[in-house]
Amino acid sequence: MRNLTLLTDLYELTMGQGYFNEGRHEEIAVFDVFFRPNALITYSVAAGMAQVADYLEQLQFSEDDLAYLRSLGCFSEDFLAYLAHLRFTGDVVSVREGELVFPYEPILSVRAPMVQAQLVETAILTFVNHQTLIASKAAKIVDAAGGGVMEFGLRRAQGADAGIYGARAAMIGGCVGTSNVYAGKLFHVPVSGTMAHSWVMNFPTELEAFRAYARSFPENCLLLVDTYDTLKSGVPHAIEVFRELRAAGYEPKGIRLDSGDLAYLSKKAREMLDAAGFEHTVICASGDLDEYSIASLKEQGAKIDSWGVGTKLITSADLPALGGVYKLAAVFENGREIPKIKLSDTTEKITNPGVKDVYRLYDKKTGKAIADYITRGGETVDTSKPLELFHPVETWKRMKIENFSVRNLRTPLIVGGKRAAAEPPLSEHAAYFRSEKAKFWEEYTRRDMPHIYKVDLSPALYALKSEMVRAGKED
Q1: Which of 3, 282, 352, 434 suits 208 as a labelling partner, its CA being 20 to 30 A distant?
Q2: Which are the contacts of 456, defined by CB distance < 8 A and separation ≥ 6?
C-alpha cells in the first residue's frame, strides 16, 4: 500500500512545527469529525473508516518524505528528526461503516498527542467525506430503485482513487455489484458488465454482433439493444439470438437499454420478449440515472429489472461535497480535560465542546429510532425514567420520551495506534446498513421533504456549551 503520510495540508505541518517549538507537541488533544446540514442531506451513511485505520496504522515519514520537507525550507532539523520517529499512538472512536448519521454529531473522534492529531486531519477528512458522500448517494438511488442497482461510474469518477473507493462506498450503500474490476478484486464484491456499443458497431450487422457475443458467453448473454433502433432491430435481433441459444440448451439473461425513452422502450421491449416466450429475461437500464430519474421511470410503469448507475452516483452530482469538518474539542493538561469551543456569529458554526458520547434512542415498542443524543464523555442515559429532549438552538421545542432503549453509536476503531478489531468483509457493512435503516421511520429517510431527525444535547453538555459561549462573548 502507498505511503500516504504526506497526504496532508501544509498548515498541519507548520502548526506541528509551532507546537514543537512551544513544547506542546505531546499535549493530548481530542478532535471531532462531523458535518453540517445541507438542504440535500436527509441522512448520511458513514463510510471510509477502514481506510482511516489503514492510514493511521501505517503513518511513517520516509527518508524521501523528510528530504522533501527539508527542501521547503520551513522546518527545523530538530523537528524533522522528531518526525522521522513519529508513529500514530493515539485512539480513535467511530461509528460503524453503514451507520446512519446526521449533522452535528461526532461520527469519529481522534485522541492523540497534538502533532499526531493535527497531522492526520486532512487524510481522515478525505477518506470519510468522500466515502460517506458516495455511500449516501448510493443508498438514496437504491431506495428509489427498490434494489438491483449496479455501480457503473469508474470512467466518470474524478480520478482512479475516487472510482475505486467510490465503488466500495456504493456497495455499503446498497449496490449489488460494480463494473470496476479492480474494486471487485480489492474488496471481494461482485462485478458486472457485458458489452459496449463499439462491440455492435464492429460487426457488419447488429445480428452478427449479437450472435458472436452469444457464442462467447452463452450462459450469461445480455445484449445491448439500442445501438441502431431499439424496437425495430435491437430487440427483434436479440429475440432471434435468444431462440438460437435456447435451441442450443442455454437460457438468455436479458437486454440492456442505454438511451432513449426508457419507460416507453422498456414497456414495449417487455411485451416483445414476453410474446416471444422470454418472460424471465431481465431488462437492465443505464444512462445518466439517479434517484430522481429512477423514481420517475417507476412512476411511469417502466419494466426495468436492474439499473446501471454511473456518473451521478460516483460523483454525487447534486451534492459534490459532504462538508465534513475536523474540530478541536478538548485538550488535556496533567490528565485534566480542558474543553474547547469554536465561536461564530453563525449559530450553526459554533461547535459542541469537550469529550462526548453519542447515543441513539429507540422506542421499545416499535424498535424505531427516536433521536440521537450527544452527551458529555462518560455520561450515562437512565432508561428507567422519562427523558426530556429539547432542540439545541430552539430550546422551546421539547418532547418527553419513556419506555426507550439506548445504544452508544461509537466504538473503538484504533487503540494505541493499532486496530481494535479485524476489518470485517464489505458485505457485513452493507448488511449492517440495511438492518439499521429498517429501524428508521420512512418519514426520516424519504427522498422528498423528509421529517428532520432529532439530534439533541444532554442538559450537561448544553450547560457547558452555553457557559462557554457566554464566557467567549464577554471576553
Answers
A1: 282
A2: 371, 372, 373, 374, 389, 390, 391, 392
